[in-house]
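Researcher: Quick sanity check before group meeting.
Model: Go ahead. Protein one:
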Amino acid sequence: MTNIMTSTVCLKPFFMAFFHGFFHFLHGFLSSFFL
């Protein structure tokens, strides 16, 4: 149980960066599409 929690905490920054880049790309795509 502790190992799973530790791995999740270690991977959290990676998922945060991934979703940040994904939403940034999605926002830019929608902006260019509607404009």
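Researcher: Fine. The other one?
Model: Protein two, sequence then structure:
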Amino acid sequence: MTQTGRKKICPGGISGDAKTGSYGVFPIGIDKKSIIPYTGIIEKGNKPFYMAKEDFVMYQQGNADLSALEQERRRNPLYKHVAKTYLWMCIGLAITFLIGFGLTESKMIFLIYAMPLAPIILLVLQIILVAALSSRITKLSVGACRGIFLGYSALTGVTMGAVLTMYDAGSALLAFGVSAFFFGSMAVAGLVTKRDLSKFGPVVLFGLVALLVMQVLNMFLRLETLDVMLCFIGIALFLGITTYDAKKTKDFYYAFENNPEMLEKVSIFSALNLYLDFINLFLYLIRLLGKRR
């Protein structure tokens, strides 16, 4: 294979930036120094092209062309990792909405919330589970990570039941369908983009904090116009976060492809992030589109 048209071969990080090889954002508790970078990236046009170690060596030696490597890439374990992540996300969503609808239709949700401090207890438990998975992901077993995720999904199902009691079934189905469409579109955008989105992390965090502060403030002001505006802002924000988290799913694979156990853990972590993105989209959309009972 000739060298015509081949651009600089450079060491790869996991951010998808072929020029800098910079690292992306990792969950709390992951030691960045322990990460083994992806073997190599070449530039095809203006886009980075990831390849496995043996393919990278073959390409350096001129024994393989890009068309063959692109065909091989379609069978890359990366896509199995991504599919597994979204499968776990869907399992979590199924648990949440089945529990939510079940409690609503059986009226058991009223018995649960009749208990003293039930909402606060549920909130504290959810925060503990998310914090445990985020901060101790390197120390937890794969089974423990899965258990935490499934437990969190079940607890969210109880809180979801309280939300569903306020809206009719048609509104809930409409909000779910619109959420699925928006989420799917932005998730695909995150999977196909080659841009390094890690620099948007601080912007996302600032946006979430600002949105939370405004929502708490409006709990006292009770301004309907402001509530509608916050719904639109929340939808836009979580659409962006969905793209960001979808991109991180690929980044985590490139970081941990040589560590199968850690790869399983970050798959669950990514599933949790995407699950939260969908749930928040749904909550804002049902407030915006839903008809109260």
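Researcher: One line on it for the slide.
Model: The CA atoms of residues 185 and 264 lie 25 Å apart.
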